[in-house]
Structure formats: C-alpha cells, structure tokens
Hints:
By secondary structure, the chain is an alpha+beta fold. It has helices spanning 12-19, 23-31, 48-56, and strands at residues 9-11, 38-40, 43-47.
Amino acid sequence: MRTSLSSSAHTIRETAWLLGVDRxxxxxxxxxxxxxxxxxxxQTVIPVSALLPLLxxxxxxxxxx
Length: 65
C-alpha cells in the first residue's frame, strides 16, 4: 500500500486501522485539534509521534473525551 510516504507518518486510513476506529473519527479528531496532522506531498498524514500516546491508551473511544 505505502509507496512514497516516509515510515514516520501514517495516512488517515492507516491511522484509523491502527486505532481501531472509523476514518471519520480520525478526521473529526484532526478537525477538532485532538490529533496532529500534516500535509506531505499533497496527502494528509499523521506523524507517528502524534500516534504514540494514543496507541498507549488504545481502546474504545480513544479519540473521544
């Protein structure tokens, strides 16, 4: 799947899979400022450094308050 992105970031789809949530939840978290995202080569990606704290607390509602 991955061809041009660095391994230091994941796409929205990959992030959703890693966290066990729907893509829309990842997009909502980005929009609300709960999850840091960047644009790289015209694609929105989430840096691994932003995912590590979430992965440590992964579970139902990981992106919700």
